[in-house]
């Protein structure tokens, strides 16, 4: 991804994800997709690595180095580190030329629909301090809908369920804006933590977050449609009784059980949004179906579970993981249509 350069005249769309950081430009498409992780020395706070390199250090760093995620549950937990991370990722795709010639792009950043005023200001400040000329915020489900190719500006109801790393956003969109929405701080990272807790409770074995994520991807599912879908994975962890390494087997049924609670919370959120959606828009949604985006939507059979629960057709966007990033970039060409749905640094930071 990072081999592409960004032309100096290009504006930039950013998906500031809890798990993954993506940068999109109109002419090049997706130019960067790396873990939202930064590694630094514990004492001096000097940054040692960012993205993929920093992610490989999680759980493996020597005493003096710590690998952290500066974005938690979809919002900025550490403003200074987030700013450094944005700057470093931009430098990766722009090279030194952007700094050299003083190029300042416009940036559109996707944020969860539940972010507070304080969090909005933090994101805008981080973007401006990372060399943006102007910064805009767009709610992630709206960006996801645009990126997934839905016709959001029409007077028709579209429903998006965007399951990211730190938050899940459910929204009904019409006429270029969000009509009703709910944001939940339960998503891909919560899935991983649920698997860690399950393995600890059932097997007395401690596994790390990277191992949990691998289990989720390899054998995970929201539900099993038949016995042939039950896959098995070998898992290594630390035995909590004797402290020694131990290998155990986990199958898809185990993971379905482990994920039942967070998956149910997302399904209930979808039902709540449908309950408060105007009847005319519900009629459109029944005709057009629900679209799922975000890495969490790739959990096997999650779409089928939602379909069975709501009785509405459900599909997963072809570009599920990139949809928000693509939508942020495309939104920069839709400023006049989306105006009221965006937050701009021009007036927001002056208030």
UniProtKB/TrEMBL annotation:
<dbReference type="Pfam" id="PF06723">
    <property type="entry name" value="MreB_Mbl"/>
</dbReference>
<feature type="binding site">
    <location>
        <begin position="295"/>
        <end position="298"/>
    </location>
    <ligand>
        <name>ATP</name>
    </ligand>
</feature>
<keyword id="KW-0067">ATP-binding</keyword>
<dbReference type="GO" id="GO:0005524">
    <property type="term" value="F:ATP binding"/>
</dbReference>
<keyword id="KW-0963">Cytoplasm</keyword>
<protein>
    <recommendedName>
        <fullName>Cell shape-determining protein MreB</fullName>
    </recommendedName>
</protein>
<comment type="function">
    <text>Forms membrane-associated dynamic filaments that are essential for cell shape determination. Acts by regulating cell wall synthesis and cell elongation, and thus cell shape. A feedback loop between cell geometry and MreB localization may maintain elongated cell shape by targeting cell wall growth to regions of negative cell wall curvature.</text>
</comment>
<dbReference type="GO" id="GO:0000902">
    <property type="term" value="P:cell morphogenesis"/>
</dbReference>
<dbReference type="InterPro" id="IPR004753">
    <property type="entry name" value="MreB"/>
</dbReference>
<keyword id="KW-0547">Nucleotide-binding</keyword>
<keyword id="KW-0133">Cell shape</keyword>
<dbReference type="InterPro" id="IPR056546">
    <property type="entry name" value="MreB_MamK-like"/>
</dbReference>
<dbReference type="GO" id="GO:0005737">
    <property type="term" value="C:cytoplasm"/>
</dbReference>
<dbReference type="InterPro" id="IPR043129">
    <property type="entry name" value="ATPase_NBD"/>
</dbReference>
<dbReference type="GO" id="GO:0008360">
    <property type="term" value="P:regulation of cell shape"/>
</dbReference>
<feature type="binding site">
    <location>
        <begin position="213"/>
        <end position="216"/>
    </location>
    <ligand>
        <name>ATP</name>
    </ligand>
</feature>
<feature type="binding site">
    <location>
        <begin position="165"/>
        <end position="167"/>
    </location>
    <ligand>
        <name>ATP</name>
    </ligand>
</feature>
<comment type="similarity">
    <text>Belongs to the FtsA/MreB family.</text>
</comment>
<comment type="subunit">
    <text>Forms polymers.</text>
</comment>
